[in-house]
Amino acid sequence: MLAINRQIAALAIMMSAALTPVTSTAQTDTPAGGSAEPFVIEVPQERLDRVMAQVRDHRFLPNAGIEPWQFGIPQAWLAEMGATWAADYDWREAEERLNAFENFRADIDGKKLHFIHEPGSGEDPTPLLLLHGWPYSVYSFIDVIERLAHPERFGGDPEDAFVVVVVSIPGVGFSEAPEEPESLRASGARYHKLMTEVLGYERYITHGGDQGALSAAWMAYDFPDAVMGHHTHMHYPRHASSPWLSGQAGPDATEAERAWVEAEAASPFGQLAYILTHVARGETLAAALADNPVGQAAWIWDKWYYWTDKRSVPFEGVYTRERLIDEVMYYIVTDSFRTSLWPYLMLAVENNATLPEGEVIANPAGITAWPDPVFPLPPREYVERSRPNLIHYRTPERGGHFPMVEVPDLYVEDLRAFRRTLIDSIAE
Q1: Are residues 122 and 164 in contact, defined by beta-carbon separation less than 8 angstroms?
Q2: How far apart (Å, rounded) are the C-alpha atoms in residues 99 and 96?
Q3: How high is the mean pLDDT of the chain?
């Protein structure tokens, strides 16, 4: 299995040279100046009616007499979710939560980029760009935006406030898709234009997990004068001598580093199946699930189950059914499923996952190694090979792949702690 994994990794991740950042053509005004237009989220009722009709008409499968979650999503559980969806669910409530914040769309390189912009409290709130991954979205941050921007409303110190900018990946939600698939690094160039040329922030922090971690880190590499620090909870791009699934830690590796890369290379096939499908057959998967709300939900909920930290709280205790439906509806009502897979397609043709040979990301970095059950983060010394200015490394006891939803209080405090350390390091 190890040899197979290494061959798959070589095919899927290491097929080309480094990327070229996108050139700048964006306008320069702030949202109030007109280059970014206020945007109210209101899905047409006919679209909602069609989705709900499809859910009600879906033919759910019987159980197969196997252990629940052993080979994917249990059919009986999916049918129960479908019953809640069809009878008790109202997307308009999710819209109200989104529209409680100021939403905008800005023209970046000819495509509309959707974002939430929440100016923070205090005298000098730090601009913070929050970047989502797959299969989550801007909506996944709905419980932490106000806490990050206005700590005093929750018993905190306004000096910890951020200016919060949450952006939708091109092709996800209300951000228009590019004409063809683009890499997460290229998307990062769009986000940089948003922060500097549209919003007017000379310096800012980037943060993300999953796909958002790639964009956040590449932005720090490509725009070091603007990105004052970057914080992630997934470690990509990594140093060139340790490609994904290679089992190689690099020269003079510690025992902990070698153990981590060897465990990664021996990952069970079930943990890799989704990404290999996305990378190698993403368009086929999109065609199979097109116009099939329950099918898309099954594929997405599968990941929410397996990637959530369930050691102390059962899955049903982490999320309500309505919240899980909200998360998939954001993709479904915007027809985002296909184009949300496009960044994966680019992993097969562009080298996003490792830095160029001999290169590092020099500006201040933070890594939080949440106890992700499928994607555990590497030890500190491994991170420092590509982030020599690592000022923040934490290993919380709770929280998985979706910490902003699973443990929002811990997530917010972790970002505040990174900012405090970053400001102190800059002052020195």
Answers
A1: no
A2: 5
A3: 92
Q: Which of 236, 195, 188 is nearest to 365 (CA)?
A: 236
pLDDT tens-place string over residues 389-415: 999 999 999 999 999 999 999 999 999
pLDDT per residue as tens digits for the range 15-45: 332 322 222 233 334 554 448 999 999 999 9
Q: What is the pLDDT of residues 210-245, one digit of tens each?
A: 999 999 999 999 999 999 999 999 999 999 999 999
**Nearest of 352, 381, 377 to residue 12 by alpha carbon:** 352
Domains of the chain: 2-427 (3.40.50.1820)
Q: Which residue has the tokens 């496009």?
A: 342
> Contact 346/352 with Cβ under 8 angstroms?
yes
Bridge partners, residue 107, by sequence: 112
Q: What H or E segment, with its residue span, contains residue 103? A: strand 103-108
Strand 390-394 with 365-368, pairing:
parallel
pLDDT tops 50 at residue 81: yes
Q: What is the separation of C-alpha 31 from the centre of its chain, rounded to a whole number of angstroms? A: 24
Residue 184, beta-bridge partner list: none
From the list 2, 404, 14, the residue with the least C-alpha distance to 242 is: 14
- Rounded to an integer, what distance in angstroms lies between the CA atom of residue 279 and that of residue 275? 6
Distances, alpha carbon 408 to alpha carbons 67, 145, 358, 359, 403, in Å: 31, 10, 37, 34, 6
pLDDT attached to residue 17? 29
What is the predicted pLDDT for the residue at 15? 33
Q: Quickly list DSSP for 351-384.
A: --SBPPTT----S-EEEE----SSSPPPPHHHHH
Could you count the other beta carbons within 10 Å of the beta carbon of residue 88? 10
The CA R_g of the chain, rounded to the nearest whole Å, is: 21
Q: What's the CA gap between 17 and 26, in Å, rounded?
A: 27
Which three-class secondary structure state does DSSP give residue 101? coil
What phi and psi values does residue 118 have, to the nearest 5 degrees?
-120, 100
Say whether pLDDT at 208 is over 80.
yes
